[in-house]
# Entry
Amino acid sequence: MGTLPRTTRFSVLDRSRTRRDETAADALRTTVRFAREAEHLGFHRFWVAEHHGVPGVAGSAPTVLAAAVASATERIRVGTGGVMLPNHRPLVVAEQFGVLEALFPGRVDMGLGRSVGFTDGVRRALGRDKDAADGFPDDLAELLGYFTGDQTAHPGVHARPAEGLRPAPFVLATGEGAEYAARAGLPLVIALFGAEERTVRAIDAYRTRFRPSDWAHEPYVVIAGSVAVADTPEDAEDLLVPEAWSAAYARTHGVFPPLMPADEIRALAMTAKERTYLADGLRGHIRGTEDDVEAELGRLVGRTGADEFLVTTSTFDVARRSDTYARIARLAGLTATVG
# Structure
């Protein structure tokens, strides 16, 4: 042990997945309880995500859920991973984060992505199309301008109470996101998910092209991925099976089912295609014993030079999820709060 730099921050992203025999309200309350756990364990920030019309995912309004999380915690930074800017008007996003920052000063993160709605129907309901992502750079500049008071897209319009406040902005690297983050001088959040070479190239390009800004004077890289730690490699893989099966089922049936236990999933009579998709869903994640995981995290942080690791793991058994995050906190040398 001891291979992880103690300067590396560790944080949490939760997507409010529903579990079998659980309502959306249950999933959202579980997210809030999980945030309190993450704070106690010493994680740096806790983020929630945006999904529209996706069965099995309760998180649809991240700024609303972030407010609930911030209200239930005391110190941990709270934010979004992320708000999908093409789905919203920048003025409204600025107002929402302005309210959050006014209520919870110094604790709010504004993670921003450029994905659009999941399906054609959702995009129509949002009043957007696939090309909406192309306007991300202009939308981002307008949004940041509402906080600094110098946006030019709509002269004379001011976002209240956002103007003069400074929630911390991040850009999620979907597609050309790394380039946008570098150009705007913002911290970068980039997912691993098995594409390590591509991720490293994107990070290198981001650092090379980074332009210092009022928001960030130097590059800052957050890498995101699933991490599962258990007593044995087999137990660690079991933690990943529920999410992998949900994704495999969605690819063959068009619906994300609620998470279910790994042993029941393995006993299912799957089609050949389902088994292939399940195997694909289990690749690219960090899993194993504490020694295995510490070595792999240390290697990845060393290779990417990441300043922070955002852990996105979800599974059926909430107690086992708590255990894996406690093990990650111990490996990372995080300091749990007393009481």
